[in-house]
Amino acid sequence: MPTMTVRPLRAPYGGTVVLTRDLVIVSDADTELEDLIFTLERQPRHGNVTDDGRVMTEGDHFTFEHLVNSLIR
After folding, report:
1. Confidence (pLDDT) at 52
2. For residue range 6-63, what is the model confidence (pLDDT) as tens digits?
3. Is residue 7 part of a domain?
């Protein structure tokens, strides 16, 4: 069973935090990192999540490559 942990993030008021591979700890014995697909289950309490500038909605997906390329904010 895959596991994923995201360290708690805090952004300054009006600021942005980039979700990088250093902030996400993920493992799955049966799947290569490049093949992992993540689903946004819920928005943060304040603000939103974007993928390459596009606001994501609950149920949207992104890949590990998006984390490597610093596209998730």
Report:
1. 95
2. 677 788 888 998 988 788 777 778 888 888 888 888 888 888 999 999 999 999 999 9
3. no
At 5 the three-state DSSP class reads strand
**How far apart are alpha carbons 46 and 10 in whole angstroms?**
10
Domain that holds residue 28: 16-68
| DSSP sequence for 41-67 | -S--SSS--EETTEEP-TT-EEEHHHH
Q: Which residues pair with 25 in a beta bridge?
A: 5
Nearest to 14 by CA among 42, 58, 55, 48: 48
Tell me how far apart the alpha carbons of residues 41 and 69 are, in angstroms, rounded to a whole number: 21
Question: Model-level pTM?
Answer: 0.80
Residue 62 domain-assigned (yes or no)? yes
